[in-house]
Amino acid sequence: MPKPVQPQNISAPLPPLVEVLDHARRVVAVLPASDVSRQKLRHRAIAIMLFDDQGRINLRQRESLIRRGASRWDVPVRSPVLLGEAVHDAATRALKAELGIHAERLRPLLELPAHPENGNEFLQVFSIVRAEPPLPALQDRESGEYSFTIEELDCLLRDFRDLVAPQFLLLAEALSLKGLWRRRP
Questions:
Q1: What residues form DSSP beta bridges with 57?
Q2: Of 31, 35, 104, 105, which is the most exposed, with the fewest CB atoms less than 10 Å away?
Q3: Would residue 72 count as lying in a domain?
């Protein structure tokens, strides 16, 4: 006699969870990352600035949340810190997931406080220098990625601010104020 088939508990995977924080960085809730982002709740996040060995910074065009259909230049890796994850581990995970790069030379660069202009993210910024030559796609403006020289980046930030993500503008201003902008990573 055949065995009765047991019903299997097939459920969809849970969405990534993020810790919602108060102004003192105490955890007050845990919600799906998409809800935290959409509601602009305080949370921890990382951003990674990718440089080549000639000091150029790689930026990626991301779709604008404000202007539908428009894309804006931003850092190539940006991610929330997931529930129970250390900030450095989040940076390592995101760098591997987004660009396939192992993060052995990842270094902390700057920390920004949460405020509405940056999506209420307590943002830890890391930098990494990629010694190998850039991939062809990283130099193709049509692909949405490009490695900017400091002069090109200055021009972009000065004359074409509407093409830059607001979070990257805040990051660039913070780096400039702290004297880190022109320093080679």
A1: 51, 148
A2: 104
A3: yes
pLDDT in tens, 90-135: 999 999 999 888 877 899 999 999 989 889 999 999 999 886 654 5
Tokens linked to 113:
């406080």
Q: Which residues of 102-123 are buried (b: 16+ CB within 10 A; e: fewer)?
A: ebeebeebbebebeeebbbbbb
Where do runs of H (alpha helix) occur along the chain?
33-39, 87-99, 150-159, 166-177
Q: CA 173 → CA 15, 65, 102, 156, 185, distances in Å? A: 33, 21, 28, 13, 17
Q: Name the β-bridge partners of 146.
A: 59
Which has the closest alpha carbon to 170: 51, 56, 75?
A: 75
Is the whole-model pTM more than 0.90?
no
Number of domains observed in the structure of the chain: 1
Is the residue at 76 inside a domain? yes
Query: What is the domain-level CATH number for residue 95?
Result: 3.90.79.10
- Which structural domain, as residue segments, surrounds residue 95? 17-177
In a domain, 4, yes or no: no
CA distances from 136 to 133, 145, 153 (A): 9, 10, 19
